[in-house]
Amino acid sequence: MHPEPVPEQKPRSLLANIFLSPNERRLRAGWRLSAQMIILWMLSAIFVIILGFLLVYAGGGISSASDFLVFQLASALAITLSVYIARVFLDNRTFASLGLLVNRRMWIDLATGIGIGFSMFLVVFLLLYFSGWVRIDGFAWQTQSAGALLGTLFSYLFIYFVVGWQEELLFRGYWLQNLADGTNLRWGIVLSSVIFSLFHLANPGMSWISTLGLFLAGLFLAYGYVATRSLWLPIGLHIGWNFFEGPFFGFKVSGLSGPVLIEHTVLGPDLVTGGIFGPEAGLVLVPALLVGTLLIYLIYQRHTSIQVSTEDL
Residue 160 sits in which domain range? Predict the structure, then answer.
């Protein structure tokens, strides 16, 4: 028997080669990413204008946790809507396909990520404390009632949930996965981590060292996605990282400060401690990342079949 002839493919036009993916009827990854950013900027501008009018009308400003939360919610709404629109109408994929399945495992991954975040900054605090580079000055419960203290901690836990959701949805969700579509997983991880670090350039005390630290943090959070093919673990890691770094153990969170449970003074060299930016700008970040990476490996990859294919990299 003679093999059936392979049907000749119709040659693609120049515009199709420039704008469309080779094997499917959707825009190339670069165009999808560009369109998503334009949608995000437009939505952000709309929400900023609305919030500006509301704050002026109320006679207030960004001077409290509640105002900060309002802006974070507006940012999260703009990011979520832009990613949803781009994922469904440009990617021709479902929103859940980014790694957002709602099931029992979701809660396990979130809790595991938060727990790993606690372990990482427990390591940071103990290393600096026993090195004599952190002096404990007091504790919040010495000057605040239990109700006020718990209210503050839960408020910031919710704020950092919103922060973790929006940043992981954008960077480890839409950007990493579309960059991987356009190149490969390795480049998707690297490029999305570079963009993640540059995203914080406006933070107080930002320097080339903190930029490098945030790039490494981006790689670590990307590993949480790769190990599970789900965004719930990196969302949990991000929440735990910010909450235990700042409100709980009392460090600056990427240059930002707020109410803390453990009041202390950092005495060590900035190169190690991170100085005014916080541990992300110090060498103390390295053992924390190693601990976090090891825990992800032991929990998710050592005894499971979830492995990264060398073809993906």
Answer: 102-313
